[in-house]
Amino acid sequence: MYQDNISRFQDPLFNYIYSLVGNVELSKDILQETNCALWRKLDDFDPDRPFKPWAYTFAFNQVRAARKTMKRNWLLFLSEDNLELASQAYTTHVRESYDVRLGCLDQCINQLSSPNQELIQRRFFDREAVHEIATSLGRSANAISLSLFRIKGFLATCIEANLSADKLEDS
Questions:
Q1: Domain that holds residue 34
Q2: How far is CA 106 from the centre of its chain?
Q3: What is the mean pLDDT of residues 4-23?
Q4: What is the CATH number of the domain that holds 154?
Q5: Residue 141: inside a domain, yes or no?
């Protein structure tokens, strides 16, 4: 299950590493090392915490390790202080973007009907299995899955519309 997170976050991890390194090939190498470290420590991941910040910590440590290894070529890396500042700036931006999307998600969930809000609550917040929800509601698992698919589509569209509206207001 958490292995999917590693695959899903390849682009954000690469972008984060590249923002600190500024070299595509070196960023690819560091991403590979980061993936290896994540796989080795996957059993230590706390599923109650967000995956991305946990993975960024590994990436940051791999950047630091590469920096030490390649210290001779100082043009490739920022100073230790500037590396830390760049990392903080990047993660702050990601966190703010996440917080904005989370706020949009809350607004969009509030636009759902009560039964649909209950489905979202049970499936994604309470982590109840689809077949359990279906049994308790007297519906088929396929019907519940289809409802969740449609709700997720609505939420994605709603979030993007809210984000676009916010961008228009900011300009």
A1: 1-98
A2: 17
A3: 80
A4: 1.10.10
A5: yes
Does 6 share its domain with 84? yes
* DSSP character string of 31-98: HHHHHHHHHHHGGG--TTS-HHHHHHHHHHHHHHHHHHHTTT-GGGS--HHHHHHHHHHHHHHHHHHH
Could you tell me if residue 103 is inside a domain?
no
Is 171 in a helix, a strand, or coil? Answer: coil
Whether 67 and 132 map to the same domain: the answer is no
Q: Which of 43-52, 53-62, 67-76, 99-108 has the lowest mean pLDDT?
A: 67-76
For the chain, the C-alpha Rg in angstroms (whole number) is 20
Per-residue pLDDT, 139: 94
* Mean pLDDT computed over 109-130: 91
Task: Report the percent of the chain where pLDDT is more than 90.
Answer: 27
| CATH number of the structural domain spanning residue 75 | 1.10.1740.10
Reported as a single tens digit per residue, the pLDDT across 102-116 is 888 889 999 999 999
Burial degree of 142 (CB within 10 A; 0-12, 13-18, 19+) = exposed
